[in-house]
Amino acid sequence: MEQQKLEQLLSNMTIEEKVGQLMQFAGHFYATNENRDPVTGPEDLQVSSISVNRSGSVLGSAGAERNREIQERYLEQSRLKIPLLFMADVINGFRTIFPIPLGLGSSWDPKLVEEAQAISAKEASSAGVHVTFAPMVDLVRDPRWGRVMESTGEDSFLNEEFAKASVRGFQGDNLETDLNRVAACVKHFVGYGAVEGGRDYNKVDLSERELRENYLPAFQAALSAGCELVMTAFNTVDSIPASGNQKLMREILRKEFDFNGVLISDYGAVEELIPHGVAADGKEAAKKALLAGVDIEMMSLCYENHLKELIEEGEVPEDLLDEAVMRILQLKNKLGLFENPHRNASARNQEKNINCPEHRKVARKAAEKSCVLLKNEDVLPLSNEKIALIGPYAHNRDILGEWSIFGKQEEAVTLKEGIAQHTSNYVYALGCPMYERSEEALSEAIKAAKDSTHIILALGEGRDWSGEGRSRTSITLAENQLELLRELKKIGKPIIVVLFNGRPLELTEVEGLADGILEAWHPGSEGGAAIANLLFGKANPSGKLTMSFPRTTGQIPVYYNAYNTGRPLPKGSTGRFFSRYIDAPNEPLYPFGFGLSYANFQYESLQLSSNELTANGTIDVQVLVKNQSDYSGEEVVQLYIRDMVGEVVRPVKELKAFQKVFIPANETKRVHFSITEEMLRYHHANQEYKSDAGEFMVFVGTNSADVLSQSFDLK
Question: What's the pLDDT at 39?
Fold first, then answer.
């Protein structure tokens, strides 16, 4: 539909119809009783049938026949025949489930993430979904926050790369013609990952420099990739809730970033301006949200109940309402819904696309590349050992992660089933339930361990311990699981711990008791098969952490790109008057970028083409990476830079580039990077984004701590 026709359509709308386009309700308000949603929302929200019948979009509804029925019934009674938008949380897969985003990030493979999200889009679109609430690009440094599972970690540059990859995967090149795609909604704008104390929905207090250096870039990257929607955050920024924050939404997002797409609130966030204490009632909340630029109000009724009155009283210009409606109409038009309101939704497409073997194959590859080998004292890979498979995750299908709302646990491959594909020489014992002690289960596990040569112990957090609203003050394994590990250690057999979890954990005790540790996250539909392939050497671990793992919860936040401070702790010093703890090292247990392989990669001969960089020039950086082993494998070669003297304090290291390279057994590869002046820019005291002449350090290595270094000067 041409823009002129959209403008004509808008001019024909009543205020009530315009306001209706701004409303989003959960699918159960549209559905018949026998065909309800997996995501329902509050049943007691007082929504009238009139409101439902003029609303503009639907939350959480999926299923080709179901959404077609809702769309058809809606259009039959619609005066202007404006189709509904169907939006849902398709985070790490629709029905074929991939590892949680924190796991996908650990692959350090943007092309793989793009492939996974393209599959997610294909499955979701065939089930009638038009928009996904992803990617989440919140930078996170506090693993107490449950939603770290939905992030790709603590580094701004890496989050940018994954943001762009996800948007490309979801949206493709042309949303109107490529019906296998869905529109992406980047979230949560902005700073949600910095909630105080790691407590969900809590306040955020960031300087403007911190906001611009670390939290905004991934959003800019997503928008540069063409992301169609943005979702507001629940939190405050500078003491103003995001959904009513004009500086964030009007000045930064709309004007500075030139975003003309749809801005949607998070669930109930407009009404939450009231308990936040910046709106006295729903009327004031509606006014503040629309003035801030929120186009769609998700699952609350402030716009519905008050916008017309506000416009009639002159409190809100009708032009702002028209702008919001036009953005929604333009999105529907871009998706081709006026000509084809069902898009790709059909029972045939759904049957053909969803959970098909080709998609499962990619899910297995993604799970293999997302696992991170944290420790290996010559116990992996396995071959013909007699294995005791023990633990609450040894034969558990609940491995899809918190946001896999359309996935089916019964379709997941358990670790036990994966191991059975490699050997019959194993015995299974529960050991303990997820969170409770069982003397009987413990006794069976000890017996199984004594009759075996190696123990695989599958431990972790249940899905209900991570995700939204799942903040924790202590991020250790449950005490009953630690007790199981301690008791098995007494037997004296090698123990390989496989971890299933949604956040970095405090693993100091586990590190001391286990001979091998494989971090599997919540790995998705093919998780058990992928992990078994790694344990038995059919695949070689290549994942690297994108969040540091603390030694103790008390270190949090601990992250690699911190400041040096005025009293940095000298290496090996135990002096008092330095920036340090008296009861633990400053360093994390496992640093950002860390991950082992069955191959032995050694770095040598870091060389710079010049020790001087000019504004328009480049420095070629090269390093030799030797695979001194009989295992071929992939290595993530990481390049970091430090500005030694800045106008404002600069981090001790910043990731600026990385390459994932395959190196055959007993071979060497020369890896090249280019350094440009643009990579050295930062926000100065006046927020000007530029570089400074002077000395810089470049670091290249296998993780953020183990690096080779050289210096150069920017002239």
Answer: 44
Identify which of 374, 361, 363, 360 has the alpha carbon closest to the alpha carbon of residue 541: 374
The SS3 of residue 391 is coil
Number of H helices, E strands in the chain: 21, 26
Instruction: Determine the average pLDDT of the residues in 252-262.
Output: 98
Token pair, residue 299, equals 């699952």
398-431 pLDDT, tens digit per residue, is 999 999 999 999 999 999 999 999 999 999 999 9
CB atoms within 10 A of CB 436: 11
Residue of 182, 247, 239, 172 lying closest to 216 (CA atoms): 247
CA 330 to chain centre: 28
Q: What angle do CA 91, 93, 94 make, to 5 degrees?
A: 105
Q: Under a CB-based contact definition with an 8 Å cutoff, are residues 610 and 569 in contact? A: no
Report the C-alpha gap between 527 and 534 in whole angstroms: 11
* pLDDT for residue 47: 87
Cβ–Cβ < 8 Å for 520, 371 = yes
In DSSP terms, 489 is beta-bridged to none
Beta bridge partners of 189: 232
Residue 70, classed as helix, strand or coil, is helix
The region that residue 222 occupies, defined by phi over 0 for left and psi between -120 and 50 for alpha, beta otherwise, is alpha
Give residues with Cβ within 8 angstroms of 311, minimum separation 6. 15, 317, 318, 321
Contact 618, 676 (CB under 8 A): yes
The answer, as to whether pTM is greater than 0.85, is yes
**pLDDT-based confidence at 33, cuts 50/70/90?**
low
Integer Cα distance of 100 and 504 in angstroms: 13
Average pLDDT of the residues of the chain:
97
Q: Does residue 31 surpass a pLDDT of 80?
A: no
Positive or negative, the CA dihedral 317, 320, 325, 329 is positive
Residue type, 378: D
Q: How far is CA 276 from CA 189, 204, 285, 516, in A?
A: 17, 13, 10, 47
Looking at residues 325-331, what average pLDDT do you find? Answer: 98
Return the closest-CA partner of residue 418 out of 526, 293, 271, 273.
526
CA distance 704 to 713: 22
Exactly one of 155, 200, 266, 515 is catalytic; which is it? Answer: 266
Backbone angles phi, psi at 310, to 5 degrees: -60, -40
E strand or H helix at 73, and its extent? helix 64-77
Distance CA 272, CA 282 (A): 9
Which value, to the nearest 10 degrees, does the dihedral of the CA atoms of residues 509, 513, 519, 521 take? -60
* Residue 97 DSSP code: B
Alpha carbons 302 and 268: distance in angstroms, whole number: 10
> Average pLDDT, stretch 112-141?
98
Task: Retrieve residue 525's tokens.
Answer: 């539909």
- Please tell me the total number of residues recorded for the chain in this structure: 715
What six digits make up the tokens of 17? 């119809």
The alpha carbon of 93 is separated from its chain's Cα centroid by a whole number of angstroms, namely 12
What is the distance between the terminal CA atoms of the chain, rounded to a whole angstrom?
Answer: 53
Three-class DSSP category at 277: coil
CB 607 within 8 A of CB 622: yes
Residue 101 structure tokens: 């985003």
- 266 tagged catalytic: yes
**Nearest partner of 190 among 224, 159, 215, 166, judged by Cα:** 215
Helix (H) or strand (E) holding 456: strand 454-460
Encoded tokens for 92: 């790490």
Nearest to 489 by CA among 519, 460, 509: 509
CA torsion angle 694 698 703 705 (round to 10) = -60
Burial class of 561 by CB neighbour count within 10 A (0 to 12, 13 to 18, 19+): buried
**Strand, coil or helix: 663:** strand
